[in-house]
Amino acid sequence: MELVAKRNPGTKSRYSISRFIDARKDGICLINDIKRLKPNIQFIMISQVLSKDMIGKAYECGAEYYINKPINALEIDNVLKKVIEKIKMERAIEQIQKLVKIEDIYPKIIMII
Predict the structure, then answer these.
(1) 22-44 residue pLDDT tens
(2) Could you tell me the fold of the domain covering 2-112?
(3) Boundaries of every domain in the chain
(4) CB atoms within 10 A of CB 30
(5) Which of 37, 55, 69, 71 ranks highest by number of CB atoms within 10 Å?
(6) Are 51 and 17 a contacting pair, CB within 8 Å?
(7) Whether the predicted model's global pTM rises above the 0.85 cut
(8) Which DSSP category does 48 fall into?
């Protein structure tokens, strides 16, 4: 986790692709740790674990998608496209929110009524 914070101080990372092998932690711990540092990051978890409980925990911890091994290139491509589209939509919403504040619109709505 220190590596994430040191390598990317102040950055607005939108997604993470990580090959994580550590005897002390699993992928769900990794998601929890990084989400504390960067809550808006998107995770795609790729695993050979087929346990529905483990998959559920991955989604509860913030995995956007869970892909079972062996991986399929078409599935990876489709999932990445969906994540990229979601990131683009989030950025567009952020830009709109910066441009338009509800306090600016609210008096105009009252006048129309």
Answers:
(1) 556 677 888 888 888 888 888 88
(2) Rossmann fold (3.40.50)
(3) 2-112
(4) 19
(5) 55
(6) no
(7) no
(8) S
